[in-house]
# Entry
Amino acid sequence: MLPDTIPPLTMVEYLAVATLIGLVVGTEREWSGPAAGPGRRYAGLRTFLLLGILGGVAGLLIGEDAMIPGSILLAGGAAFNVVAYARAVRGAQAPRDGTTEAAGLVVLALATLAGLGFLLIAAGAGAVVVFALGEKQRLHWLVRRIGQEEMHAALQFLVLALVILPLLPTGPYESFGGFRPRVLWAMVLLLSGINFAGYLARRLVGPGKGYGITGALAGLISSTALTLQFSRISRAEPSHARGLALGVIAACTILPARIVLVSLALSPAVALHLLWFAIPAFAVGAVCSVLLLRKSDSAEATTEAPKSPLRLWSALQLAIVFELAFVAIRYAQSHFGSTGMVGSAVFFGVADLDALTVSMNRLAVNGDSEVAAARAIGIGLLTNTVSKMMIAVVLGGKAFRKLAVGGLAVTAIVLGGVLCWRW
# Structure
């Protein structure tokens, strides 16, 4: 709800953001094309700056219920862009794409949003516009590398995420062990998203580096889910064992950094004690990742990509297994319980390391409990690493097991040594 009257200082802020949007887009347009000649642009820094001011003023007028003057200004700015494009096309020797004119219309719209007070939306969208305009060559290169199969998979994923997911019931259904349909489908989407990201990454930079990049990114979300999926893929694609192992170890390398950042936000004291466990685990994972990356098999890049980028059926199977494991763990906890921090650390290390991190940080209230909380998180990290080793052993291919389990085993040994030392 907009205020009845916008304070003068606030008006200046709104107008400043609108002007800045026009300024940065205009600066990019100055760099991107010639000011004269057959391919000259119709507008540069000054014109875009004026368009930003015009849109900002129009937004301020509309926000003050002066709809007619504000609409007239917007219509005039839009007409200016349309006329400029028509003149440029008529006098051009070669076809024009109209990017600059379209950018002018977008600047008007975003500046109007800023004038209405939606500063974060306007500024964020303006940054995206400048990025898209400035990265023309890379974006065109990316589009040329993406074919019909990738576009079909992306559209399918959007349908699964934006149409099916909201329609599913939340649950839980206690008669089915606390089954939650929406959470299960979210896990399917996570696994399919990991598959799709890995597919795109290996298409762009090859399997060796592509799976490693995917693993590092997935480590910010769920390294366990990635380990499940990559272990399964290693059986179908044994020639990519090194790249898949690299992805798993990269995900497990990011995990200690993630839990330290979570702890830092909740309890800096716990995060400080947790560094004793996180730094060795991160260092070992980083060394193993570098070694795998340096020995990456160049022959992997010549193999064909899988026909299904999402691997939806495989993701669904693993998600069901994941959900059944959680149901079993919840059942065991409700009937047998867990005693003390150590029992909770072992349980949550297998089930949900993030939940363990949050709960232990909230329990820490003094110096002794902060040390105990960090130790419990370290135990959970060790348990989580061992559980991923078991996943790789059970689900992974032979070459993948040798590489992934070897790297995870070194990490587990180092974590166990630190725990014994800090106990």
About this structure: Residues 297-305 have pLDDT under 50 and may be disordered. The radius of gyration is 27 Å. DSSP finds 17 helices and no strands in the chain. The longest helix spans residues 367-395.
